[in-house]
Amino acid sequence: MTILIKNAWLDGEAKDVFIDGKHIRQVGQELTMAADRTIDARGKAIIPGFVNGHSHAPMTLFRGFGDDMPLMKWLQERIWPHEAKLTRTDIYWGTKLACLEMIKSGTTAFVDMYFNMRGIADAVEEMGLRVLLGDTDIDHFNPELAEKSKERTKRVFRMVNEEYGGRIQMSVAPHAIYTVSGELLQWLNDFSREHALPMQIHLAETEGEVADSVKNFGYTPVRYLYKLGVLSPRLIIAHGLYVDDDEIRMLADHGVKVVHNPASNMKLASGGRFMFKEMKEAGITVALGTDGSASSNNLDMVEVMKLASLLGKAWRKDPVALTAGEMFEAATVAGASLMGLKAGRIAEGYLADLSLVDLHSPVFTPNFNFVSNLVYAANGSCIDTVICNGKILMENRVVPGEDEILEKAAERAYDLVKRNA
Amino acid sequence: MTILIKNAWLDGEAKDVFIDGKHIRQVGQELTMAADRTIDARGKAIIPGFVNGHSHAPMTLFRGFGDDMPLMKWLQERIWPHEAKLTRTDIYWGTKLACLEMIKSGTTAFVDMYFNMRGIADAVEEMGLRVLLGDTDIDHFNPELAEKSKERTKRVFRMVNEEYGGRIQMSVAPHAIYTVSGELLQWLNDFSREHALPMQIHLAETEGEVADSVKNFGYTPVRYLYKLGVLSPRLIIAHGLYVDDDEIRMLADHGVKVVHNPASNMKLASGGRFMFKEMKEAGITVALGTDGSASSNNLDMVEVMKLASLLGKAWRKDPVALTAGEMFEAATVAGASLMGLKAGRIAEGYLADLSLVDLHSPVFTPNFNFVSNLVYAANGSCIDTVICNGKILMENRVVPGEDEILEKAAERAYDLVKRNA
Predict the structure, then answer these.
(1) B291: phi then psi, degrees, rounded to nearest 5
(2) Which residue, A203, B13, B110, B267, could crosslink B52 as a Cys pair with Cβ 3.0–4.6 Å?
(3) Which residue numbers in chain A have pLDDT < 70?
(4) How far is CA A367 from the centre of its chain?
């Protein structure tokens, strides 16, 4: 399949982009090759697909189910009891809803951490996105549960490799240092090294976590991981709010990547002082994410870019910090590098994961600076067309099957919260 | 003109709303009266129109023209030289663009502060919104300029009363305590008392302003206004970031209203610790605003609600603070009370300023809590239909004349920045 996109706004001029199979083959002007599909993109900008660096996709089912509540009350009364009753069908429809929402806001790939990988993988496979799956490991410091976790990890790894692959990739996913023993963390790290898998973990998300880490392990979270020997270029840290200068150095030295989730951090009041600038200066790859829809409420990476910039400017008291251009890079090419993808740029040889943005709207008028308008003025609804892996997933804001997804996902969500009664 | 809206989602059930002329006449179920227009609102929620409590509407022309710059450099190099060249036609098209953007995101009324009132009033009159105009007063402590300001204020007041009125209302608008002499502030306050006009001012926006106020006047900003005798129920303060407990008490005692502009405060790094909770507890009416598009980049009140809540939760380290419901009230009924309007509720006898929200989308799926979805998951693009003063301004996201507005406003903006060369 070849696609020729004509006259899309790119770097200040109208450009043509030729897609051949899964890749961008040529970017230029007045391209005239024959193509299976030609898209007239006048009045539209072309951008790389966003990469959501941290999500719990099926949690769309819990959207709006317990906002403005204290964290523990929310988890204990709303989330955990109902998560325990989730079936594979729930997970499947929740993920379909997440994928629909991501496509409609220009996201083409995401890093996910949840459970029931088949439900997620099947949904993503059908929806046409890319995912880095993470089947959450939790042993609560119980060796028996640790053994079960290891067996499950091996099983899921085989399953993903044998039955999925391609757009569906696997990572190991220890939940956090307060739910996973050091022994299991090390085993998962060994497994990830052996099979060249990324490893994701929630880390340094709250002040309480840091205090407990010091109390229980004798070290702050990053130092604890260092002592365990699990810092590596395979490691992706979600949150990383509470890190000192030396820890930033340690993360940089080991090639660890970090995902900032401003909406979740602010809404759950985890904290607001993310060290974006310091991490970037140390050479760390910093991406952006939404976190699950139960805490950030949506999966809109355009909103995340604005939030990350505004939050960074505010606490630093520096209107020049965290520029629109830096946010755009974090949401695209940095995210792609988390997932080991040659994506996140509109350039020859890159994966054909991209979107067209409709410029015919108030927020892109005037259009002095496209990236600034995208980051600071727009929201995900500006996305008009989405292509992933060379395949059109949305055109003129229409995603095939949308009605059924909305209906089925809502049905599962309403049933789920009744099931517990 | 009568409009019957059938089966709109309101407070958890399907309701009918009957509009007769400018007002909501009846809210109930299975209403059957004859109406000039009947709107089928199944799958849509009905909400009051948002009130944008602080804006500089024509500054849409400067959208994206100098982001991520230090404040003074931005003002001196980008804003002021070009503002000086704005013509009435520029102002008119910039305001049309602002109105278009506001309608498309569900705002039906706004408090504005700029200059060239005819350009603004004509645009708002045509677009069908309500505005509280403010013709910015600045005398730079120069008595001659103060006299000119007074004459202009009298002239504009006459003009608005004689030629506009209705949806177009007038306020007095001293820019700030660092640009307006105490003498002019008192004169404007007297004028506003005499003619029962609201008075708006930027106040306590930055730490620098507070330090200068103490240095130059011997008092912090709110205390300075108190000493001048200009605190009153007519006064609307934009920003009010830097106020202590006693100042909150003073504002409450005098019935002063405050508008919080989180996007602008964060982006310009003015500060993040807005005392929403303390002000509300003291009994102050607190509304929300965007500020001008040159600093907040858009006029989306749905985004403002989320930002205000998230920012408040983050700095307070309290996930329960600033709830979705409080934000919704601040963006609707509190804003209406700034403007002296009986609006901001879907109830009998209230002005027919309202919107329909399309619930058929991922961010409203599932719909456990409509207000939570609206505030935390949605953005302005969820607005489907807008009615102001009993007149339909947008239906199915179509605003008559949109293309011309986008074209003309962009034309004026591009011409404007060339004019200075």
Answers:
(1) 70, 180
(2) B110
(3) 420-421
(4) 28
B420 in a domain, yes or no? no
Looking at residue A391, its pLDDT comes to 98
**By the 8 A CB rule, do A42 and A14 touch?**
yes
pLDDT digits (tens, 9 = 90+) for A258-301: 999 999 999 999 998 999 999 999 999 999 999 999 899 999 99
ipTM: 0.97
Q: Is the pLDDT of residue B420 over 80?
A: no
Q: What is the DSSP letter of A329?
A: H
Q: Which of B298, B361, B363 sits opposite A377 (nearest CB)?
A: B298
DSSP labels for A183-228?
HHHHHHHHHHHHTT--EEEEES-SHHHHHHHHHHHSS-HHHHHHHH
A260: part of which helix (H) or strand (E)? Answer: strand A257-260
- Shared domain for B212 and B323, answered yes or no, is yes
DSSP, res B49? P
CA distances from residue B252 to A159, B280, B327 in whole angstroms, order as listed: 64, 9, 19
**How would you classify residue B269: left for phi > 0, otherwise alpha for psi between -120 and 50, otherwise beta?**
left
- The answer to whether residue B381 neighbours chain A at the CB level (below 8 Å) is yes
Tell me what pLDDT residue B78 has.
87
- In this structure, the answer to whether residues B238 and B96 fall within a common structural domain is yes
Above 70 in pLDDT, residue B421? no
Q: Quick check: is B407 in a domain?
A: no
Tell me which residue range forms the domain holding A387.
Answer: 2-48+352-402
Residue tagged 């102002």 (tokens): B91
Domain boundary, last residue among B317, B338, B359: B338
Residue B108, both tokens: 């039906």
Tell me the pLDDT tens digit for each residue of B47-75. Answer: 999 999 999 999 999 999 988 988 888 88
Distances (CA, A) of B363 to A64, A66, A94, A175, A421: 9, 15, 12, 26, 26
- Which member of B61, B266, B271 has the closest CB to residue A366? B61
User: What is the rounded distance in angstroms from the CA atom of residue A163 to the CA atom of residue A168?
Assistant: 10
How many Cβ contacts (< 8 angstroms) between chains A and B? 205
- pLDDT tens digits, one per residue of B343-402: 999 999 999 999 999 999 999 999 999 999 999 999 999 999 999 999 999 999 999 999
Tokens of B50: 């948002």
Residues B245 and B280 reside in one and the same domain: yes
Residue-wise pLDDT for B245-287, tens only, equals 999 999 999 999 999 999 999 999 999 899 999 999 999 999 9
Q: What is the pLDDT of residue B75?
A: 86
Q: Which of residues 140-159 of B touch A (CB under 8 A)?
A: none
Residue closest to B206 by CA, chosen among B250, B243, B236: B243
Number of domains in chain B: 2
B-chain residues near A367 (CB < 8 A): 64, 410
pLDDT at B142: 98
State the DSSP code for A173: E
Chain A positions in Cβ-Cβ contact with residue B397 (cut-off 8 Å): none
